[in-house]
Amino acid sequence: MPKVTVRYWAAAKAAAGVAEEPFDADSLAEALDAVRVRHPGELTRVLQRCSFLVDGDPVGTRGHETVRLADGGTVEVLPPFAGG
After folding, report:
1. Cα torsion angle, 12, 15, 17, 23, sign
2. Gene3D superfamilies attached here (predicted)?
3. Among 45, 38, 48, which residue's Cα sits nearest to residue 17?
4. Which are the contacts of 23, defined by CB distance < 8 A and separation ≥ 6?
5. Which of 37, 42, 48 is nearest to 15 (CA)?
6. Backbone angles phi, psi at 45, to 5 degrees
7. Which pLDDT tens digit goes with each residue over 15-55?
8. What does the DSSP assignment read for 72-84?
């Protein structure tokens, strides 16, 4: 199973209490399920509003279960940002 780093930004970082952490997951859906188990509560609510980058590529509207993760890859968790 691939080992990936999940990086949290802004409100996601505040809710997780860490900037990044490792997970074992085959897909983005599996990684996010693991995040929810490790951080029930506020982070679960924040994730509903987030967009995601996998190895620098936007996930967009693709189903999270279809987004495969590579060993050593990175998932960026990006809440909506204010300003511009």
Report:
1. negative
2. 3.10.20.30
3. 38
4. 3, 4, 5, 6, 31, 34, 35
5. 42
6. -70, -40
7. 999 999 999 999 999 999 999 999 999 999 999 999 999 99
8. T-EEEEE---S--
Residue matched to tokens 């209490």: 17
What burial letters (b/e) apply to 29-66, b meaning 16+ CB within 10 Å? ebbbebbeeebeeebeebbeebebebeeeebeeeeeee
Q: Which pLDDT tens digit goes with each residue over 11-21?
A: 999 999 999 99
Residue 1 neighbours by CB distance under 10 Å: 10
Closest CA to 63 of 24, 35, 18, 30: 30
pLDDT at 82 over 90: no
Tell me the C-alpha distance between 1 and 16, whole Å.
23
pTM beyond 0.90: yes
